[in-house]
């Protein structure tokens, strides 16, 4: 009977440690985010933190998983609020960009940067990012309503995700919201126009309509 509350406390502590890790990474960066600091912010001892996450790498890997799960859960909730018809594409693109300009992305960026120079950390992070990328792509396809079996539509969805990531990077040092909103509007209009006309083509490709003109 006493094990259940203890297990509950353990889950709460673990979750709190991960939340503090995400906030600390986003606010203070990789170098400052130590197990000791995270434990202090979470109100537990360093030993208690290491009981859940024996190494710093264990802590950051788990934090990345929590970040992605939180984003996917948010995306599932938001899917029911997306407009139908006019405005849907812009709403989807805007929400993708919002993710890449938020706290979760800023925290993940700190881990990616560190992993670029740390082979052991990179070996942990790359498989996670590949899995996350596949799920993010599938979610974007579903929300946009594209046919992912069309290779051009597939690449355009990937380009949308790459665009969102790039806009997120541009926003790290300065507030880029005004220009970002314009880019989102123009890109969404391009996607809509191409899908209406069936003219989503690769750069350099010739459309059938061009040949018959």
CATH topology of one domain: Tetracycline Repressor, domain 2
Find the structural class using helix and strand composition: mainly alpha
Largest sheet: none
Q: CATH class of one domain, anyone?
A: Mainly Alpha
What's the helix count? 10
Shape: elongated
Provide mean pLDDT, rounded.
83
- Tell me the total number of β-strands: 0
Low-confidence stretches: 199-213
Rg over alpha carbons: 21 Å
What fraction of the residues are assigned to beta strands by DSSP? under 5%
Span of the ends, CA to CA: 79 Å
| Helix/strand order, N-terminal first | HHHHHHHHHH
Give the helix level as a range of percent: over 70%
CATH-derived architecture of one domain: Orthogonal Bundle
Could you please describe the fold and organization of this structure?
With 213 residues, the protein is mainly alpha-helical. The chain has a domain at 55-201: Orthogonal Bundle (Tetracycline Repressor, domain 2). It has helices spanning 3-28, 35-42, 46-52, 56-79, 88-100, 103-116, 119-144, 151-170, 177-197, 208-212. Helix 1 packs across helix 6 (103-116), helix 5 packs across helix 8 and helix 7 (119-144) packs across helix 8. It is elongated. The termini are far apart. Mean pLDDT is 83; it is low at 199-213.
């Amino acid at each position: 009977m006493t094990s259940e509350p203890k297990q509950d406390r353990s889950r709460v502590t673990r979750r709190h440690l991960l939340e503090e890790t995400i906030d600390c990474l986003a606010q203070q960066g990789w170098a400052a985010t130590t197990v000791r600091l995270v434990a202090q912010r979470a109100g537990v001892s360093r030993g208690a933190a290491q009981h859940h996450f024996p190494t710093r790498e264990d802590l950051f890997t788990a934090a990345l998983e929590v970040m992605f799960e939180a984003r996917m859960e948010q995306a599932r909730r938001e899917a029911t609020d997306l407009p139908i018809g006019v405005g849907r594409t812009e709403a989807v693109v805007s929400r993708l960009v919002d993710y890449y300009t938020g706290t979760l992305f800023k925290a993940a960026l700190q881990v990616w940067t560190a992993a670029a120079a740390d082979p052991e950390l990179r070996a942990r992070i790359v498989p996670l990012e590949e899995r996350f990328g596949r799920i993010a792509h599938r979610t974007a396809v579903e929300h946009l309503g594209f046919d992912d079996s069309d290779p051009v539509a597939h690449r355009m969805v990937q380009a949308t995700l790459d665009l969102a990531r790039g806009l997120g990077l541009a926003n790290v040092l300065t507030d880029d919201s005004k220009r970002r909103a314009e880019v989102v509007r123009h890109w969404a209009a391009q996607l809509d126009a191409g899908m209406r006309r069936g003219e989503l083509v690769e750069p350099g490709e010739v459309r059938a309509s061009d040949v018959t003109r």
